[in-house]
Design a protein that fits this description.
40% of the residues lie in helices and 10% in strands. It starts with 25 loop residues before the first helix and ends in a 5-residue tail after the last helix. The protein is globular and about 70 Å long. α7 (235-255) links the parallel β3 and β4 (259-263). The protein is α/β, with parallel strands linked by helices and 355 residues long.
């Protein structure tokens, strides 16, 4: 006799109620995210507004400030601004620091006081008609007790360049002060006044040489204190105003007895620094440098251009090396070292640097 058996249905054991996942309501998640974002914005409203103020004048900056100004006011009224300030200080950040962050300044060299600077504005200058360059009197002979004093000023380009220069200097005989500031330039004295900063630097550090690199944030409308902004589209006026600011920096430096190396901008692969704007600024730097004894212009365009334009890689020391960051603007550390090597060579050959 045969017995037919029915297959037993396979069942999945029910998951205990406490292990079942309850899908969160999408609306609740969205509200939580918005609340977190608002609290973060209130805590960091001061820094966010300062960053917006540093951006180029235009519709984007206006829109950002239209949102951030009320947010900052609300942050102050609720007391969250003070909480955010204390949190920043606890993390080692100064929420009221200079735009772009302050660079730590090495302490003055110990030992004998710096030798007095007696050089005036006489010295070498570029001769008209292609007659070459009359060398300025060499800078003083440094000692360990009174090292050569070099100050690097400018934007984020200058910060990296200062590191590159330091690699090629005899550091016991050089006191290098890095005074670069991110997100600054000569276009926005309302945000960061470089003329006042350079004046303070020469009074404080009494440099033998100043290395300057500006322009990374300057291809924008120029803010004129007490007047209307000068649009970059008005090429004639823009060039005149910007040239005067470059000349003012050079005058402050050389009037204090310092020699100056002004480094031009490299080719870029970014709408922030179009080739036409870079060439315009480099022409200004070179033209103004030719007017001041003791100021030398170094073209970084010539050093970093390939086939007339931007190149991310260069043959250095027989090896193809990446010299530009992925943003198409800044240098890699190898690029800064390469540029710094040329700056130091120029200081030795034309300014008589002994270190």
């Amino acid at each position: 006799m045969s017995t037919k058996t029915r297959p037993r249905p396979t069942t999945t054991p029910a998951r205990p109620p406490e292990l079942r996942r309850r899908p969160a309501a999408a609306g609740k998640v969205l509200v939580t995210m918005l609340v977190c974002f608002l609290v973060w914005g209130l805590l960091d409203a001061r820094s966010l507004r300062r960053s917006a103020e540093a951006s180029p004048i235009g519709a984007r900056r206006t829109a950002a400030l239209a949102v951030l100004n009320p947010l900052y006011d609300l942050s102050r009224v609720t007391g969250l601004d003070a909480v955010g300030t204390r949190a920043s200080e606890a993390m080692g950040r100064d929420p009221n620091q200079e735009p772009g962050g302050a660079i730590s300044i090495p302490p003055p060299a110990t030992g004998a006081p710096p030798a007095p600077i007696t050089r005036g504005r006489s010295g070498g200058m570029r001769l008209a008609g292609g007659g070459g360059i009359a060398l300025p009197p060499p800078v003083r002979v440094p000692t360990k007790q009174s090292p050569e004093r070099i100050v690097v000023v400018g934007d984020s380009f200058a910060i990296g360049l200062g590191l590159g220069i330091a690699r090629d200097l005899n550091t016991p005989l050089v006191h290098l002060v890095q005074q670069g500031r991110e997100a600054t330039g000569l276009a926005r004295p309302d945000y960061f006044n470089w003329l006042a900063q350079v004046k303070a630097d020469v009074e404080r550090f009494r440099p033998d040489i100043i290395v300057a690199m500006f322009g990374g944030n300057d291809f924008q409308d120029l803010v004129v204190p007490g007047g209307q902004p000068v649009p970059r589209s008005d090429v004639g006026v823009w060039t005149s105003v910007y040239s005067q600011r470059v000349a003012d920096v050079m005058h402050i430096a050389t009037a204090a007895g310092a020699r100056v190396v002004w480094v031009g901008l490299p080719p870029a692969h970014s709408p922030v620094l179009p080739a036409a704007g870079v060439h315009r600024m480099n022409d200004i730097y070179e033209t103004e440098a030719a007017k001041f004894p003791g100021v030398e212009y170094l073209s970084s365009w010539d050093l970093f251009a390939r086939n007339g334009g931007y190149a991310a890689y260069l043959p250095i020391g027989g090896k193809v090396t990446q010299v530009r960051e992925s943003d198409g603007v800044h240098f890699t550390f190898a690029g800064y070292a390469y540029l710094g090597r040329h700056v130091v060579a120029l200081m030795h050959s034309l300014l008589g640097l002994r270190a």
